[in-house]
Amino acid sequence: MNTSGVVVGVDGSASALAAVRWAAEEARSTGEPLTLVHAYSPGGQSYAARELRAVQQREQGTAHLREAEVVASLAAPGVRVASRLRAGDVRKVLLAESSGARQAVLGSRGAHSVSRLLLGSAGLALAMKALCPVVVVRDRAPATGPVVVGLNGWPECAPAARFAFLWAAAHGAPVTALRVWRALGTTNSAGVHERARAALAAELAPIAGEFPQVPVEHLVLRGPAGETLLQFGEHARLLVVGARGHTGFARLLLGSTSTHVAGQAASPVAVIRSAEVVRHWREGARLDPAADGAG
Question: Can you give the residue ranges of the UspA domain (predicted)?
């Protein structure tokens, strides 16, 4: 299998270093290498100004990578670590670096562009195009708790569900499947709630049946989808959401709401855009970028 294991974006921020710790532990748990990537894009109106800025950015980038190497070695002694300093647009660099990776990891906040990658108008470049799962990590990454997967909209969220079970099985964690409904003026809320829970259990049954060793809880809550996911997932080991479709959690990483979930979630957030991405994570094999239609 020709992959570069786990790739993590490095920019010197506290959030990025938290992502490095999480990625290092993930790489060690799977026996894969860890690749630290820092991208810089020199600016300036004249050639001399661009060259001077490039030198400064290379020096700063090298320092960020060295710091990240120390953090990785302390978090996961023995993990194989490689560092790459690349010139170019951070989105394009990380997309290229993650093309052969099994997983890409980013920090979710900070002053630099890697931490802001999933936040803002151009923010979904990596999550929507990467051939592997993208995990966004804040400063705190719980080592215990369930894998919480948001499942509003089926079958769009089926790849997210499958990834949640695969990851939970690999890490010895339970799964909580969460569905949120919000119906104004509903008089029979108990009936709506029970029907939604039964539908969720029925949809998830084929996937859950493949992982009898993974405990699963079906949970249906009423309220705003984003806020409910954040609140319930506060103590999750990992939050898993889909990045396709036009309902429920599939919309949480589209447009302005991306800042709400990826920027505020206390737990790491895994973005799963297609079944091919899940297959890539499971098999650890390089995918053809043209094979992008499964979902």
Answer: 6-138, 146-273
Alpha carbon of 260 to those of 106, 120, 226, 265: distances in Å? 16, 10, 7, 8
Q: Where in the chain is the domain with CATH 3.40.50.12370?
A: 147-283
Record the tokens describing residue 44, joined without a space: 């300036």
- For 196, phi and psi rounded to 5 degrees? -65, -40
* Domain 6-137 top-level CATH class: alpha beta
Q: Where in the chain is the domain with CATH 3.40.50.620?
A: 6-137
Structure tokens at 90: 């951070």
Closest CA to 230 of 258, 201, 197: 258
Query: Can the peptide bond before residue 155 be classed as cis, meaning omega within 30 degrees of 0?
Result: yes
CA distance 58 to 12: 13
Residue of 38, 37, 32 whose CA lies nearest to 5:
32
Integer-rounded Cα radius of gyration of the chain: 19
pLDDT tens profile 127-178: 677 888 988 887 777 778 999 998 887 888 899 999 999 999 999 999 999 9
d(CA 264, CA 266): 6
Domain 147-283 has CATH 3.60.110.10: no
- Burial call 65-76: b when 16+ CB within 10 Å, e when fewer: bebbbebbeebb
Calculated CA dihedral for residues 159, 100, 41, 138, nearest 10 degrees: 40
Cβ atoms of 131 and 280 within 8 Å: the answer is yes
Question: Quick check: pTM over 0.70?
Answer: yes
